[in-house]
Amino acid sequence: MNNGPIGVFDSGYGGLTVLKEIVDQLPQYDYLYLGDNARAPYGTRSFDTVYQYTLECVQWFFNQGCSLVVLACNTASAKALRTIQQNDLAKIDAGKRVLGVIRPTTEIIGSLSKTKQVGILGTNGTVQSNSYPIEIHKFYPEMQVYQHACPMWVPLIENNEYNSPGADYFVKKDIEALLSQSKDIDTVLLACTHYPLLIEKIREFVPADITILTQGKIVASSLKDYLTRHPEMDEKCSKSGQRSFFTTDSAEDFDTHAAVFFGKPVKSAHLTL
Model-level pTM? Predict the structure, then answer.
């Protein structure tokens, strides 16, 4: 049986914040990262479009020898994961697996909130899908979930404006819009893998007694646990500590931005799907 790298997918750069934490916790594995930058952002696109794009990319990973793919993208996890898991995997290869970022987060969020009131900040696509309230209520039926979409945050980050005064305006406005929905919100989840880059600004505008959750460490811990519980999948994952990066857009542009998200230099190759 041939083994291959673990695939990590995002519509752009945000998934690198997740990959960074995964590599930190599981450095021995090989990883293949794909950013579909040419078609980003996914957050504003329809369910069907996100599903088609995500499925194309998942099939590319499988063709590269990946048996396990992590959708390190909330929009893809919200709009495409379930259909791929339920309809497509059986037809493509029943021995392969695709995991997302929503379930690991929703499994633990209830244990972190004392008031049982949580806020979700995400893209339009993630918020409109209602994936977070639906999944959270499966584990914590008593939980109150408040959501707010932040359509300007990803463009600010991808255009390197996340440290600018312009970013302050939108971050403050969106956080106030979320927190105005309930005075008892005690936990705020950043439900987009881009948002950790705004963490310093977010902390400025979120009261100190509110917990801010990012997904990277949560998803990495969940993947580690998954591989421990599924030795048959772990065997299919190659372990020589290699990382490869691909983008559907300019590799040069990708490398410049990616280093900020990944925390170290990245050398990618261009891919035409």
Answer: 0.94
